[in-house]
């Protein structure tokens, strides 16, 4: 069978019921904490009711009996203390992804991750993708070959407790500050899905969180917003060249996994009309499994189609009044959800969004080659990771814009009103 590997990897995934639309929501002030990185952290303009003014959806207070939970949730969540009557979404939009008694952490997060130096990370091929997080003087690389197995890494970077998250079904990598209301949360994989996106849980309140937005959707923290920290998906080669003193997750995480393989073989190249486990209406502007860079700045969300980016390589734009540039390159970077061995996956490139302003000057960029760019104003040369390599601005670094790099169907489902650049229609 063509997708047998995917079916085996998702053996515990149950059939889902059709989702219904969310009710109309009111809003209240967010409790999001300040940005600890010194970069840009923006409350996302999410479907749940979040907007660019830093407010998130007000919760619906509607008590519900455990036995009345839809989609088979009642049996699987008997031991949970989740307050299902406090929520921002219709419960029928949440369905079981792992059909097992108490599915929480059946996909086990890494709570005490081990790291290796770049020199000791030779098990990683140069074209393998991963989440790059830079905070203070620390640069850490989270290979997708490990993230597809664990989906969440609870870590501390530059003395800040963070959760690095990746949803393979949506190809969405996001990093959150785990501090909220004076407490530090430990996030885990709940075993539930919504619009094919991972629903996370915290072990302090059993609240449920939407991974793609960082918004609490059910429980005590319903309506709260986790602070999203700027990150990006890049190749190990780019990371190791520019951060030779950085750290990468080690291949020995004490779980007995042989990392480097892909448990979702052919998922990204599937020709199925609807992606696995997605039960909403598809947006027709792009193929469902095409990729977009979703930029979130100045209270506005705007998507940039990967294929169109690949033709131009540098797109200068303004999002929410903020000048930004999207770099595309490093075209050998592999698709983590394609071949059985990730390094054998099709080359799909890397795309990252940056703030275009350096000092008091807005720069305009053009591509030079697969890994470098030049700003027209000063003639300085910049790497694909936003570092000035030579010229008058040598040594400068572009600020990282808050952005997502994910499948179009997921981005469009959670940001349905956002503008899309590079679509055919």
Would you kindly provide a written description of the structure presented here, covering whatever features stand out?
By secondary structure, the chain is mainly β. It has 2 domains: 4-232, no CATH class; 291-421, Rieske Iron-sulfur Protein, CATH 2.102.10.10. The chain has helices at 4-9, 73-76, 144-150, 236-242, 306-312, 408-414; strands at 27-29, 55-57, 60-61, 86-87, 94-96, 115-117, 129-135, 138-143, 152-157, 160-167, 172-177, 179-180, 183-184, 187-194, 197-202, 208-210, 215-218, 228-229, 232-235, 247-249, 291-297, 300-305, 314-319, 322-329, 350-355, 357-358, 361-362, 365-367, 372-375, 381-383, 388-390, 403-407, 419-421. The chain starts with a helix and ends with a strand. The relative contact order is 0.16.
Compose a concise summary of this entry.
With 425 residues, this protein is mostly beta strands. The protein has helices spanning 4-9, 73-76, 144-150, 236-242, 306-312, 408-414; strands spanning 27-29, 55-57, 60-61, 86-87, 94-96, 115-117, 129-135, 138-143, 152-157, 160-167, 172-177, 179-180, 183-184, 187-194, 197-202, 208-210, 215-218, 228-229, 232-235, 247-249, 291-297, 300-305, 314-319, 322-329, 350-355, 357-358, 361-362, 365-367, 372-375, 381-383, 388-390, 403-407, 419-421.
């Amino acid at each position: 069978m063509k997708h047998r590997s995917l079916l085996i990897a998702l053996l515990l995934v149950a059939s889902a019921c059709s989702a219904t639309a969310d009710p109309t929501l009111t809003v209240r002030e967010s409790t999001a904490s300040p940005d600890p990185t010194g970069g840009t952290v923006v409350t996302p303009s999410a479907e749940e009711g979040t907007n660019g003014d830093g407010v998130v959806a007000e919760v619906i207070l509607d008590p519900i009996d455990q036995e009345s939970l839809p989609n088979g949730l009642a049996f699987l969540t008997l031991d949970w203390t989740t307050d299902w009557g406090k929520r921002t979404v219709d419960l029928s939009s949440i369905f079981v992804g792992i059909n097992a008694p108490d599915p929480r952490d059946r996909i086990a997060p890494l709570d005490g991750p081990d790291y290796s130096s770049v020199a000791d990370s030779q098990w990683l091929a140069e074209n393998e993708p991963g989440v790059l997080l830079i905070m203070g003087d620390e640069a850490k690389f989270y290979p997708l070959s490990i993230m597809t197995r664990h989906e969440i890494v609870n870590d501390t970077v530059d003395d800040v407790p963070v959760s690095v998250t990746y949803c393979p079904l949506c190809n969405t990598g996001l990093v959150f500050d785990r501090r909220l209301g004076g407490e530090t949360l430990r996030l885990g994989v709940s075993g539930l899905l919504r619009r094919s996106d991972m629903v996370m849980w915290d072990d302090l309140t059993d609240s449920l969180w939407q991974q793609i937005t960082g918004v609490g959707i059910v429980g005590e923290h319903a309506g709260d917003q986790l602070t999203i920290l700027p990150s990006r998906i890049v190749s190990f080669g780019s990371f190791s060249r520019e951060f030779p003193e950085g750290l990468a997750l080690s291949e020995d995480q004490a779980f007995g996994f042989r990392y480097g393989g892909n448990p979702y073989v052919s998922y990204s190249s599937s020709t199925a009309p609807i992606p696995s486990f997605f039960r909403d209406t598809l947006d027709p502007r792009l193929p469902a499994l095409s990729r977009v860079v979703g930029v979130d700045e100045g209270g506005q969300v705007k998507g940039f189609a990967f294929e169109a980016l690949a033709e131009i390589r540098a797109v200068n734009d303004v999002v929410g009044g903020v000048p930004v540039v999207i770099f595309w390159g490093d075209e050998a970077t592999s698709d983590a959800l394609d071949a059985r061995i990730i390094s054998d996956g099709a080359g799909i490139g890397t795309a990252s969004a940056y703030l275009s302003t350096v000092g008091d000057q807005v720069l305009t960029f053009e591509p030079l080659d697969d890994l470098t760019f030049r700003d027209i104003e000063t003639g300085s040369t910049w790497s694909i990771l936003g570092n000035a390599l030579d010229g008058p601005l040598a040594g400068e670094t572009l600020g990282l814009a808050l952005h997502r790099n994910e499948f179009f169907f997921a981005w469009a489902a959670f940001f349905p009103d956002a503008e899309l650049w590079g679509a055919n229609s």
